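Here is the promised in-class demo. Please do not try to memorize the tokens; focus on the logic of going from shape to residues.
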């Protein structure tokens, strides 16, 4: 029976279990952030070969370049720094339950989110409808989001390399137009992938993907990061003058 949803669920469970095992050996749960992008690449190619459809190659390629870039960026950013502060705090709070909590609240929870966000990749209908304009529109949206996110990550990395910027908030480059340009780019990436996936399956199921990523970025990731910087000098003024996600060019 053809069911990409079941196949993907099993794949994600196995994939996240492997990363969880590695994380416990090296005592670093934050490697799940590297596993995040690579997981979508694995899903895309697994389904591409399991349900062959040459017309889906563009969608698979987009997922691949996005996932590999993100995983590489996070690996370089975190190299030699140990476990990320968020995971350190969670580990301390969990105490003796850290092993099980890490499995369910870090790796399996991200696996659940991965499943829903990967829904556009699971649209594997063999006979696609000829709505090429959706592919063109999705390509434009994806490429803009991908470039915007990549540029934001690169500029922030260069900013942090300068020791004179320690403790400061970046407000130049694309970061002058919104407080979370990387998250804005990420949101556009998944709206673009959703548009590209419409000809291959049930759009009303795949729609959950960009909706969920939009809510995660705007309601959880963004506010969580800003709470960390709320006491830094001039941050209140930055909040008042700069949009959170959608770039403000004037």
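The designed amino acids, position by position:
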């Amino acid at each position: 029976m053809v069911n990409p949803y079941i196949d993907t669920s099993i794949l994600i469970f196995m994939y996240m279990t492997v990363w969880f095992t590695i994380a416990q050996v090296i005592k670093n749960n934050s490697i799940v952030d590297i596993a995040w992008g690579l997981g979508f690449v694995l899903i895309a190619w697994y389904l591409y070969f399991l349900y062959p459809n040459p017309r889906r190659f563009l969608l698979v390629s987009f997922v691949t370049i996005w996932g590999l870039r993100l995983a590489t960026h996070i690996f370089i950013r975190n190299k030699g720094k140990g476990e990320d502060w968020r995971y350190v705090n969670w580990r301390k709070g969990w105490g003796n339950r850290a092993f099980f909590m890490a499995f369910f609240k870090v790796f399996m929870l991200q696996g659940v989110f991965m499943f829903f966000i990967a829904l556009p990749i699971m649209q594997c209908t063999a006979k696609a409808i000829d709505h090429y304009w959706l592919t063109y529109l999705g390509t434009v949206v994806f490429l803009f989001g991908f470039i915007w996110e990549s540029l934001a990550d690169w500029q922030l990395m260069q900013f942090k390399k300068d020791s004179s910027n320690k403790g400061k908030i970046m407000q130049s480059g694309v970061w002058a137009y919104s407080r979370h340009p990387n998250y804005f780019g990420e949101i556009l990436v998944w709206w673009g992938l959703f548009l590209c996936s419409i000809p291959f399956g049930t759009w009303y199921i795949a729609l959950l993907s960009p909706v969920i990523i939009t809510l995660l970025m705007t309601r959880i990731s963004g506010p969580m990061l800003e709470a960390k910087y709320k006491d830094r000098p001039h941050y209140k003024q930055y909040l008042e003058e700069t949009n959170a996600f959608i770039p403000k060019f004037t």
